[in-house]
Amino acid sequence: MSNKLYHGAAYYPELWNEEAIENDINLMIEAGINVIRMGEFAWSIIEKEEGKIDVSFFNSMINKLSNHGIETIMCTPTPTPPIWLTHNHPERMYVDADGRVMGHGSRQHVCTNNAYFRERAAIITEEIAKSVGNLPGVIGWQIDNEFKCHVSECMCTTCKTLWHEWLEKRYGTIDELNEAWGTHIWSQHYHQFDQVPQPHPAPFLHNSSLKTMYQLFSYEKIAEFSDEQAAIIRKHSQAPITHNSTTFFHVDNERLYENLDFASFDTYAEQNNFASYLFNCDLWRNFKKGKDFWIMETSPSYSASLENYAVPHPNGYLKAEAVAAYALGAEAFCYWLWRQQRTGCEQPHGSVISAWGKPTVGFENVMEVEKARKEIESVILSTKPIQAEVAITYSDIAKAFIKTEPHKGLDYRSLMIDYYEKILSIGYHRDLIPEQANLNGYKLLFTPFVHYLSPNYISQAEKFVEEGGIWIVGPLSGGRTINHTIHTDAALGELDQLAGVETLFTYPMDGTESIGEFMETSATLGIWSSVFQPKEGKSVGIIKNGLSAGKAFLTENRRGKGKIVMLGSLPIGEQGDFLLKKCFNHYAEEANVTLKTDVSKGTIVAPRQGNGYLVWIIVNMDGMGGTFTLPYDGIDELSNEYISNRECEIEPFQYKIIRFTND
């Protein structure tokens, strides 16, 4: 890709006549759109009849856009198989957990593991790649669209066969599976792999091992499908390849991006949920470390479908979103969608241009984004995001475990964003990192809500601690094995010994009137919790009242140059937030975390490193304005004004760029 910041949109020229397309291109130029994503829903246009593939429309469209200085991300159209592939073929269709077979008419209605679907998907991917792969206007590829957005694990007969093959490869023998899953419980013992069911409807809950392993099987199969398409494209194109995912979808993003070239995501968070938006930026920056990510879809105003709609963004927020994204490592900021759909289930969705070809309520905000892009581009291109000193582990494997074992409605993504927001709100620059990420350069590591800690993860974390890092583990971390069973040597397995604790009890603290006290601060404790007795180290958080009064919910144990901190329970409510922030600040100070900024709530700082100098990009996200304190003298890059180290004000949704005169 070229050395620029991209400002783009999803476009569906196959739905419009030549006059509308010409009007669209003129408005794109006016709005500063320099990249278009297209093709992901166009299978029936490219292959109207089976075997009759014609990519010429998109070939000419890419060239037309290129002639106007607009580049293209080309998509494979596999999320929407045409009627000739699905009609009268229920064996090809996705089957949900209740056994319902999907019909034609929406998207993601076919099982992506079906052999015939895979064959036709490979053929059309190859024909598209051959036709447009070497066009100068094609700067990148997107495989499919939003894998597992509307569906999760498929229960069709194809998947049943593949499931049994996957189990045999994983366990080797049926005796190994029976031992790992403990199948003698409730007479679930199997004599051969093809007896192991899919988690179809059952009178009560399925075995936890079966339920979680089926999710991991599904994760692996959709990643294999992505790998297959990527390999085909690479035979005909040098342009980098991505997929547009989110933390909502039923995929293992770390595995998905393993064989892709850059990471991209979709987000439709409302302005009052800007922490969720920043969460994605801080995570996607680290799926392909060292490579800029793309925001492939976000609404210029609001998301909507026939059945629902979101609150429109206030004026000014879109600009704040874009600047924050570019500052945190995005190369592109793109909208869904350019021209409003005139038909289908997403007709009401916010767009840049209306179905009748006029600017929408979001158009002026798009123009603001373009103005900001031009203003910040030279600074962004001459600097790089600084690695944080604080890391928070994110795991889609953990998401699968919590989906199997949600207790009373726990949701991994919600838990993580709430936890993340506390770290964000006290001003720490932070990285969300996948499980296999390298821990070099970090000083403080958080590992909340990860039921299963792999030997590799524990080994890396132990090394991190030995070399001087502080590792805060929990709550809900370490208490399950790889097969989603309970440890029998200690409540948290190897973690008990490593942390120098005996986990005495694990039980739900909600409603038990248990109070946690840490550094003279008290709060109610909740969710499923672990109660500790230190064998080494010491108790630093004591439980008052409830079933385990006098025992510890927070311990620390020095190992090597660093420390392991066990957080066994979740402080809740306003006092819980206060206690957690106090805890995080305490250990950040002890770890000598310096990448912390004094900003008012709702304002963020994205630090970036230039060649021998440091830049802060400050953005107000909550629309309330605020303040930030400079650690030393700097230059305002936008006004060229010299600013001394002092508290400064920032207006609602304003952004500032400060270059420091001494590093």
From TrEMBL:
Annotated substrate binding sites: R107, N145
Pfam families with a match to the protein in the record: Glyco_hydro_42, Glyco_hydro_42M
Coiled-coil blocks: none
Domain Beta-galactosidase trimerisation stretches: 388-593
InterPro entries: Beta_galactosidase_Trimer (IPR013738), Class_I_gatase-like (IPR029062), GH (IPR017853), Glyco_hydro_42 (IPR003476), Glyco_hydro_42_N (IPR013529)
Binding-site positions, Zn(2+): C111, C154, C156, C159
SUPFAM superfamilies on file: (Trans)glycosidases, Class I glutamine amidotransferase-like
Active site positions, chain numbering: E146 (proton donor), E297 (nucleophile)
Gene Ontology terms, MF aspect: beta-galactosidase activity; metal ion binding
Keyword set, alphabetical order: Glycosidase, Hydrolase, Metal-binding, Zinc
GO cellular component: beta-galactosidase complex
Membership in a protein family: Belongs to the glycosyl hydrolase 42 family.
Name used for this protein in its record: Beta-galactosidase
Organism of derivation: Metabacillus litoralis
